Amino acid sequence: MLQLTDKAYSTAPATTAASAPRMSNDENRNTGTGGPATSVITKVKPKTKRPNLYRVLILNDDYTPMEFVVHVLEKFFQKDAEAATKIMLHVHHHGIGECGVFTYEIAETKVTQVMDFARKHQHPLQCVMEKK
Ligand code: TYC
């Protein structure tokens, strides 16, 4: 059967009431001691988790043409010409620079795409990922 909702992709708690303080089922139950009735207050924690993030970095070298690096940044990291040129020049002068920040699988894919593209064009450009 086709399911339209999927818990794995839900970012919000199922209901807002879920995170409100709640008393145990048998509210105001007697303790059987002749003492006062007691209740346990429970608070349901929203179960959203932030994903681990990874920086994708490119490294400088002496041979890859500047225009090729700019092209890589436009093609795989959606940078415009100005942003791509800034990043390329930063790497050229400092040795390393950030192309973007992604979840693990996306970062891994970007690294593979850049490395394959550089190899195909016979440039030694290196691309790596680093946990934030
Ligand atoms: N240093 C290279 C050159 O002078 C340009 C370059 C920039 C190479 C950034 C790689 O990640 C890089 N042609």
Give structural notes:
The chain is α+β, with helices and mostly antiparallel strands and 132 residues long. The chain is 33% helix and 17% strand. The chain contains three helices and five strands. It has helices spanning 66-77, 81-94, 104-120; strands at residues 22-23, 41-42, 54-59, 96-102, 126-131. The strands form two sheets. A three-stranded antiparallel beta sheet has the order 4-3-5. Helix 1 packs across helix 2 (81-94). It is rod-shaped and about 85 Å long.
Tell me the layout of helices and strands.
Layout lengths: L21 E2 L17 E2 L11 E6 L6 H12 L3 H14 L1 E7 L1 H17 L5 E6 L1
Antiparallel strand pairs: 1-2, 3-4, 3-5
Helix pairs in contact: 1-2
The structure holds L-tyrosinamide.
L-tyrosinamide binds next to strand 3, helix 1 and helix 2.
Could you give a quick summary of the protein structure above?
The protein contains three helices and five strands. The chain has helices spanning 66-77, 81-94, 104-120, and strands at residues 22-23, 41-42, 54-59, 96-102, 126-131.
Q: Report the structural category.
A: alpha+beta
Largest sheet: 3 strands, antiparallel
Mean pLDDT: 82
Give the count of helical stretches.
3
Element-by-element helix/strand order: EEEHHEHE
Rg calculated over all Cα atoms: 26 Å
How many beta-strand segments? Answer: 5
* Termini separation: 40 Å
Shape: rod-shaped
Strand content: 15-25%
Which ligands are bound?
Answer: L-tyrosinamide
Strand arrangement within the widest β-sheet reads 4-3-5
| Unreliable spans | 1-31
Helix content percent band: 25-40%
